[in-house]
Amino acid sequence: MDFSKFTLIQIRDGIANKQFKSEDVVKFFIQKCKDNQNLNAMIEVYDDVLEKAQAVDKKIASGQKVGVLAGVPIAIKDNILYAGKKMGCASKLMQGYVAPYSATVVEKLLAEDAIIFGRTNMDEFAMGGSCEKTCYGACHNALNFEYVSGGSSGGSAVAVAAGLVPCALGTDTAGSIRQPASFNGVVGLKPTYGTVSRFGLVAFASSLDQCCPIAKTVEDCELVTKVISGKDPHDSTTIQNDLRCVQKSRYRLGVCKQVLEILKDSQCKDEFYALLEKLNEKFDIVQVDLPHMVNSLACYYILAPAEAASNLARFDGVKYANRPEGCTDLESVYVKSRSEGFGKEVKRRIMLGNFVLSSGFYDAYYNKAKRVQRLIKQEFKDAFKNCDAIVMPTTLGTAFKIGAKNTNPVEMYREDIFTVPANIAGLPAISVPYAEKSSLPLGVQFYCDECGDALMFEIAKQFEGGVK
Amino acid sequence: MEQIEHLEFLSKLKFSGEDREKFESEFKDIVAFVDEIKNLNLSGDLDKDEPIGLDELREDVPMQSMEREKVLSNAPKQKDGCYVTPLVVE
Hints:
The structure holds 2 protein chains of 2 kinds. By secondary structure, chain A is an alpha/beta fold. Chain A has helices spanning 8-16, 22-35, 49-61, 104-111, 154-161, 178-183, 218-228, 257-263, 269-282, 296-311, 330-341, 344-357, 363-383, 409-413, 420-425, 453-466, and strands spanning 42-45, 73-77, 115-120, 167-172, 187-190, 210-215, 252-256, 284-288, 389-393, 429-437, 440-447. Chain A has an 11-stranded mixed β-sheet with strand order 1-3-2-4-6-5-10-11-9-7-8, sandwiched between helices. Chain B has 3 helices and 2 strands, in the order H-H-H-E-E. In chain B, strand 1 (78-79) and strand 2 form a beta hairpin. The mean pLDDT of chain B is 87. The chains are: A alpha/beta, B mainly alpha. At the A-B interface, helix 10, helix 11, helix 12, helix 13 and helix 14 of A face helix 1 and helix 2 of B.
């Protein structure tokens, strides 16, 4: 059986109904990963997956109660801890690190009898939008080898799109799940901030980071999000988001005029306008105004580096992983370990973070960005008084060629223009494929109000079922 | 650039040779990019600081923390249950 064509729910149901075994499924995906190593999406398939699958099969055969993900293989991004397994953040500095405990998201998947299948490639410390800035080498797009996978959760998106695994977790700080999902023609989301615990994820920008699945369908993503969400005593920022919504017969979608303005010169303008025409049949369309949404990107490149500069201070050559030879005093342990261990993009962001926080600049940059963030949040809140969801493209265009944007960091940063507002405002947003251009996929996003995650899934399912 | 040296000190990083020149020029572009926020005109109530709410803290109950052995398991150098670094105090 070719399980690469199955959705997560089809695999789950097939195992539960004893049409096939988890062992068959896992064996299939192990082989599929071996056959597609050139994509560089999977860094490692864990060595105990067959054993774990057989254990679930035994449970099912003996009639024991099993979890809602029983026997389904799920991969995790290389910045998520799984006790006893390697985790490297795609960084030279972290190679050799073995997780001493499991992330809450991993514990929750295991509690539902999922098989944690392996780890996926990413941009180092989740900083990047192409999955080229990784110590494992660039990850390739699932549909065209010459093109980037997107990032930072590029490995997770490619693993799902290429059928190496039915679902993979990623993390999203500025669009790191939604952009690669869009580039590879699969579904990915970020939930309302706080919906999913960050305990056991390597922190990048703590006030913006969220972990969530990438899968083939909205329904698959919804199921896994429900499993991994919930209040966690280990993460004080988690909230109880009940993920239920009141259904309506017809939903109202907002189109932001500032988005249309940005789209004027973009590659996917025609496709997006054609989509709006089609959406009109099933949804009511209204225009919304988000005057400061365009400032989200610059706001992000102040707030995220500021938090990263703090969060990455822990990588000092004392507590984790690698310390180069020849360190003569404590200062040289810090400086040598970090200078030799971190890649260029990570260094750039640490320096930028320390710049915007440093004496004389803090008010003009960091403090001001926090105020702009509040303004953006308020504008979204007002916009949602008049619509159920806001629709916008996930990216300005399709995936680009490997190496095409490596010379200019600011150009790469602009990739996040439509994804980053969701992180800045703490809102849920999902990317669903809607069209193709030159045989590469394009994704559309649905943004909802805070804790409107269930409504977001509902609207995305309606879209997936009837408009595409 | 003096400022880059200061940031290197704060960041515990050191750039050298070609890398340094390239970094300096890219850094200028990035700062110019985020200057958009510095130059933005804001008015009204939002032009104030807002502290982070900390009203949902858990009860202060002691809990089991990670065992010492596990904490040290990823250290590049360790001895007798401690991290090893070059001499700090003479």
